[in-house]
């Protein structure tokens, strides 16, 4: 690191668990964030400020006025612009030494397979089950850690699915894919603005820990937040030996 980086990341470097070695891991990392909305906004901004070297931000939507209640990476002057472009502008304003790549077409199985094969960790900040399951399949295929978050109404969830550990569950183990599942979304049910900020920030924290190899991740646990009563619940998640996505992994 140069002198400017030592100064910028001084508060990280002072942490014994992180230090210069951990910060250098962050600077060398490549991360994919799928979704630049309520969850993706705080996640991307914290990863940028923390010094993750390359961030790939994928979102095909444009900024709408109803987004601004919670999607803090965007602002009124950017209405109608692609969220990925707006997000890149915000991240580079926070930390101009980063490399920020954007993907502005809808991510499908093929594009997810390509992108996820090249990164160190993936953050799922989307709001639909189809994309979540596609991201999970690609993460299992390429053995990439997945930090998953969700938020609706006053309830948020966050967990880490790490296929590098053959005993760890994948997203499908916890939420099996089904054609008859009715997906809830903010447009029809609403969402408390700070909720996605809390969950997205936790996704950033878990991603940074995974990259720097510090602490204990949420692997095998689902944290659930009831923001109305401000109560946290932790649920253990076990691997499903019959899971159609990850059952072929060998046990360690």
What does this 3D model show about the protein?
There is one protein chain. By secondary structure, this protein is an alpha/beta fold. The protein has 10 helices and 8 strands. The chain has helices at 3-8, 10-13, 19-28, 40-50, 83-94, 109-116, 129-142, 171-174, 186-189, 193-212, and strands at residues 30-34, 54-58, 99-103, 121-124, 146-152, 155-161, 221-226, 231-236. It has an 8-stranded mixed sheet, sandwiched between helices. Helix 7 (129-142) links the parallel strand 4 (121-124) and strand 5 (146-152). Helix 4 (40-50) runs parallel beside helix 5, helix 4 packs parallel to helix 10 (193-212) and helix 6 packs across helix 7 (129-142). The longest helix has 20 residues, at 193-212. The N and C termini lie far apart (37 Å).
A few lines on this structure:
The chain is α/β, with parallel strands linked by helices and 252 residues long. It has ten helices and eight strands.
Please provide the count of β strands.
Answer: 8
Task: Sketch the major β-sheet.
Answer: 8 strands, mixed
Q: What's the CATH H-level superfamily name?
A: NAD(P)-binding Rossmann-like Domain
Encode the helix/strand succession as letters. HHHEHEHEHEHEEHHHEE
CATH C-level: Alpha Beta
Radius of gyration: 17 Å
CATH fold type? Rossmann fold
The backbone outline, from C-alpha atoms, is globular
The helix/strand class is alpha/beta
Give the tally of structural domains: 1
CATH architecture: 3-Layer(aba) Sandwich
Helix percent reads 25-40%
Number of helices: 10
With strands numbered from the N-terminus, the spatial order across the biggest sheet is 3-2-1-4-5-6-7-8
């Amino acid at each position: 690191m140069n002198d400017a980086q030592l100064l910028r990341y001084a508060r990280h470097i002072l942490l014994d668990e992180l230090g210069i070695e951990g910060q250098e891991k962050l600077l060398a990392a490549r991360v994919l964030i799928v979704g630049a909305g309520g969850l993706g906004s705080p996640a991307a901004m914290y990863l940028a400020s923390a010094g993750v070297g390359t961030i790939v931000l994928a979102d095909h939507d444009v900024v709408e006025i109803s987004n601004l209640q919670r999607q803090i990476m965007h602002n009124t002057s950017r209405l109608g612009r692609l969220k990925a472009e707006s997000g890149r502008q915000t991240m580079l304003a926070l930390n101009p030494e980063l490399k920020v790549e954007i993907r502005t077409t809808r991510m499908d199985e093929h594009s997810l397979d390509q992108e996820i094969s090249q990164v160190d960790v993936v953050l799922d900040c989307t709001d639909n089950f189809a994309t979540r399951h596609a991201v999970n399949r690609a993460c299992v295929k390429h053995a990439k850690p997945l930090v998953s978050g969700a938020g609706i109404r006053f309830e948020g969830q966050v967990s880490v699915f790490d296929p590098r550990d053959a005993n760890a569950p994948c997203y499908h183990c916890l939420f099996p894919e089904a054609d008859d599942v009715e997906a809830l979304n903010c447009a029809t049910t609403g969402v408390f603005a700070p909720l996605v900020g809390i969950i997205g920030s936790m996704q950033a924290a878990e991603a940074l820990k995974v990259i720097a190899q510090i602490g204990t991740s949420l692997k095998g646990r689902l944290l659930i937040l009831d923001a109305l009563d401000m109560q946290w619940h932790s649920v253990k998640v076990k691997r499903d030996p019959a899971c159609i996505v990850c059952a072929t992994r060998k046990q360690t």
